[in-house]
Amino acid sequence: xxxxxxxxxxxxxxxxxxxxxxxxxxxxxxxxxxxxxxxxxxxxxxxxxxxxxxxxxxxxxxxxxxxxxxxxxxxxxxxxxxxxxxxxxxxxxxxxxxxxxxxxxxxxxxxxxxxxxxxxxxxxxxxxxxxxxxxxxxxxxxxxxxxxxxxxxxxxxxxxxxxxxxxxxxxxxxxxxxxxxxxxxxxxxxxxxxxxxxxxxxxxxxxxxxxxxxxxxxxxxxxxxxxxxxxxxxxxxxxxxxxxxxxxxxxxxxxxxxxxxxxxxxxxxxxxxxxxxxxxxxxxxxxxxxxxxxxxxxxxxxxxxxxxxxxxxxxxxxxxxxxxxxxxxxxxxxxxxxxxxxxxxxxxxxxxxxxxxxxxxxxxxxxxxxxxxxxxxxxxxxxxxxxxxxxxxxxxxxxxxxxxxxxxxxxxxxxxxxxxxxxxxxxxxxxxxxxxxxxxxxxxxxxxxxxxxxxxxxx
Length: 459
Hints:
Helix 6 (334-364) packs across helix 8. The chain has helices spanning 2-16, 161-171, 200-203, 295-309, 316-328, 334-364, 378-395, 418-432, 440-447, 452-458, and strands at residues 21-23, 27-33, 37-38, 43-52, 58-64, 71-75, 81-82, 86-87, 91-95, 98-103, 106-114, 125-136, 140-153, 176-177, 182-186, 191-196, 207-212, 225-229, 232-238, 248-255, 261-270. Strand 20 (248-255) and strand 21 (261-270) form a beta hairpin. It has ten helices and 21 strands. It is α+β, with helices and mostly antiparallel strands. The longest helix is centred in the last third of the chain and has 31 residues, at 334-364. The strands form four sheets. Strands 14, 15, 16, 17, 18, 19, 20 and 21 form an eight-stranded mixed β-sheet that branches.
C-alpha cells in the first residue's frame, strides 16, 4: 500500500514537471490541467494561471477605461480543439479618476480542451499556447510567453482532489445565465438606466455591480446607483462614450449575505421594462465619478506634469539639441531668438493636435486605445530607437550635426532656419510620448473619459 502511494506521488510530480513556467518582470504564467490523465474523445479543462506582481493588475475581456484583455493563441495537434476563454468576473480598479476591469493576485483563464476519439491511448497530448497580457500599475507593460503542458492519455480520466478543488473554485467565479427580462434606456443628462425583473437571486443580494461586455456602454469609473425591491430592480450610472440601439450583454456581480460574490449573465433590450415599482429596500445614491476632477484641475495637472517632464531623462536628448541651438543664436537679435522659440512651440502643439485627433478618430470607431498607442507598433518603436541612437552619437561627438548619417529620422532638425526649430519640437513630442511624470496620469485618464473639446484641451 505504501509502495503504491509513493508511486502515485512520483507519477504526479513527474506530470507537473512537464508544464513550463514563464516568468517575466511582473507575472509568472503557466498552464494547469484539471485532469492528470484524459481518455480519447473526452473534454477537459485547463487554465492559464497568471500570478501577478503585488500592486499590479491584468485585464478582463472588457478592460474598462483603458487596457487590453489577455489573449491565448493555441498551437494544438491536429484534431485537438480549444474553446474561447471562460472569463471569471472582474473587479473595478481605480487609477485616479479612471477605472479598469481586471484582476490582481492570481488570475485564472479557464479553457475547455476537446480530444478526438481516435487519439491513441498511451500517446500524451502536447498543449502549446502563445499568451499575451498587459500588466499595469500606474504604467502599463505588455508581456508575453509561450506556455506548454503535456497530459497523459489513458483509458480513463483521472482528476486529483486538489485539482478538482482548484477548478471548482474557478468555475464558481464564472457568470451563470439569469433568465430575467431586462431593459436599458438613456436619459438627457448623460445617464443610462438598467432595469431587471426581480429574480430572487437579485432581490436577496446585498449589492449589485454591472460590467458590460462591450466597451463604451458605461463610464467605468462612475458610481452605480442601485435600487432593489421585491417588485423592481434597477441600476443607474453614467453612460459611456457610445450609444447603442441593440441588445446589450453584461454581467451583474452580486454580493451575498455572507460577503461572497457571484456573477449572473444578463441581456438587456433597449426600451422601458414594464414592471411595478414597489417600496425601495435599498436607497438610490447620487451618480458621481470616483476621484472626480474638473476640466480646470485636469488642465492644471497637465501643465504641472509637462513642466516636470522637462526634467525627465527621456527628453534630455532633444532638449540638449534645443539648448545648443539657442546658444548658437546667442549673437543674433532678440526677434530671431523669439522666432525660434515660437516655431519650436508650434512644432510641439501641431504634433499634439495630430496625436489627439488620431485618438479621437480611433475611439469614435470603437477602438480601445490610450495615450501613446503608436508605441504598440514595432515599426514605430524601431524607427524611434534608431533616431535616438543617431542623436546620441551626434551629441557624443562621433560626427558633426549636418552629416549625412543624421538624415535618418532627424535631418529636419539640423538644416538650420525655420524648419529646424519646428521639427525639433515635433521630435520632442515623439520622444516624450512614452514618458510620464507626476500629475500626468490623472490628467490624461480624465481626458480620455471626456468629450472631444476637453480631451484635446488636456492633451
